[in-house]
């Protein structure tokens, strides 16, 4: 079974204005409220790919109910810890460019934390746990390490998509996949990265530190795949970008879902890029039809 863990889900409030005036009254041209948080996005795209999975993490309040109801409608299995505080709302402002304002996250109590750890007791050998997104501050900086320790103890594999120290700490534990975008990669190493060669150099450092597969996404420039097997580039298909929120999460879903179905890493890479681009070209996350349409258009070359 594949599990996604979203410690800090969100309702993504996508607001479109013709032109944004700071300090003035702006009227919305269009708005959408979508379930969000990285693991939840991964779960939704896995479901589109026909890969059954269970979404877990923390949900609370009216925002938490909104997300849970959405998952129910899409027939995605969910097993969240219900918290007393409200799940956050993240603002995605589209005014030509995309500007994001993400909340810090709700207060999580000690019993709520224990309850999530207890749920992970059910993990078993062969399971894959996708740990995605930020950690609400009340959980403390080492919470992912605690979850990874449980995964390892149960013989489950894990994928981690987060930033900073939490990602650094996870590498020696041997993640199946890490997927920074090129900005996150530069930030991780406190480096200036401007060329493809530099991305490969730093991407390889993630392999050396313990990751089994590394994807570095580069938005419209596609992605690099770095593993023991070699280094590959895939160009992103061309199309009209509608909303790139969740493109990275979709890429993880495409990669892990296809790897679980086929065992073929290059097919998984292709599906990852197709899924990321299919989301970038959609208002909401990618649907199956769009992913299938783009899959043959992804050109992979070995470097
Ligand atoms: N503008 C775009 N055009 C085409 N594909 C895109 C675009 N933006 C994102 N994608 C696809 O989604 C993948 C992940 O996007 P990226 O923006 O790098 O991730 P993140 O959302 O984590 O920052 C890219 O590798 C690419 O396949
Ligand atoms: O947990 P974080 O890092 O604040 O990110 C949460 C945000 O990331 C998203 O999951 C989108 O992530 P990506 O665009 O990187 O795929 C949004 O749905 C959500 O608002």
UniProtKB/TrEMBL annotation:
- Under which pathway is this protein filed? Carbohydrate metabolism; D-tagatose 6-phosphate degradation; D-glyceraldehyde 3-phosphate and glycerone phosphate from D-tagatose 6-phosphate: step 1/2
**Record's keyword terms, sorted:** ATP-binding, Kinase, Lactose metabolism, Nucleotide-binding, Transferase
Question: What InterPro entries does the database record attribute to this sequence?
Answer: 1-PFruKinase (IPR022463), Carboh/pur_kinase_PfkB_CS (IPR002173), PfkB_dom (IPR011611), Ribokinase-like (IPR029056), Tagatose/fructose_Pkinase (IPR017583)
Which Gene3D superfamilies is this protein grouped with?
Answer: 3.40.1190.20
Q: What is its EC number?
A: 2.7.1.144
Query: Which domain of life, per UniProt?
Result: Bacteria
Domain (Carbohydrate kinase PfkB) ranges = 7-280
Which reaction does this enzyme catalyse, per its entry? beta-D-fructose 1-phosphate + ATP = beta-D-fructose 1,6-bisphosphate + ADP + H(+); D-tagatofuranose 6-phosphate + ATP = D-tagatofuranose 1,6-bisphosphate + ADP + H(+)
Q: Which GO terms describe its molecular function?
A: 1-phosphofructokinase activity
Q: Which CDD domains match?
A: FruK_PfkB_like (cd01164)
The family note in this entry says: Belongs to the carbohydrate kinase pfkB family. Belongs to the carbohydrate kinase PfkB family. LacC subfamily.
Write down the NCBIfam families for this protein, in alphabetical order. 1-PFK, pfkB
Q: What does this protein do?
A: Catalyzes the ATP-dependent phosphorylation of fructose-l-phosphate to fructose-l,6-bisphosphate.
Name under which the protein is recorded: Tagatose-6-phosphate kinase
What organism is listed for this UniProt entry? Paenibacillus phytohabitans
